[in-house]
Specification:
By secondary structure, the protein is α/β, with parallel strands linked by helices. It has a single domain (about 5-120), classed as Rossmann fold (3-Layer(aba) Sandwich), CATH 3.40.50.200. It is built from 3 helices and 6 strands; from the N terminus they run βαβββαβαβ. The strands form 3 sheets. A two-stranded parallel sheet has the order 1-2. It is globular and about 55 Å long. The model has no long low-confidence stretch (mean pLDDT about 85).
């Protein structure tokens, strides 16, 4: 749904990926690819209506942009928000305590609004709880 798609970064672009990073596009294809009954592939849910929420500008994203996109997804009544991204552990002291509380608040809000959050577990075996 291009009318609802947004860029949450401050780079001035649209919702499309920049800098050659198209991981989100790849994941969206796994979900919603629709060959229209012809030759080709179908995703796991080919009739899905997708909304692009871009939080990356090149290889990096900010927690603020990610959280804004999660809240936005809940506010537009998205059934599911896929966060195919990762973060390195932030210590629970100082700013880490703040980030943890804000992250928890945003995720709880989305769930209470009925938006299921599907979040990547990461690839580095990092313990984000402790």
């Amino acid at each position: 749904n291009l009318d609802l798609s947004r860029n949450f970064t401050d780079d001035g672009g649209d919702h499309n990926p920049v800098g050659g990073d198209d991981h989100g596009t790849h994941v969206a294809g796994i979900v919603a690819a629709d060959n229209g009954g012809g030759i080709g592939v179908n995703g796991t849910a080919p009739k899905t209506d997708l909304v692009d929420c871009r939080v990356f500008s090149g290889p990096t994203a900010s927690f603020g942009d990610i959280l804004a996109a999660v809240v936005y997804s809940a506010n537009i009544d998205a059934d599911v928000a896929n966060l195919s991204l990762g973060a390195y552990p932030v210590p629970r002291q100082g700013n880490g305590q703040f980030y943890g509380k804000v992250l928890n608040s945003a995720m709880t809000y989305a769930n209470k609004e009925g938006t299921l959050l599907v979040i990547a577990a990461g690839n580095d075996s990092a313990d984000l709880q402790h």
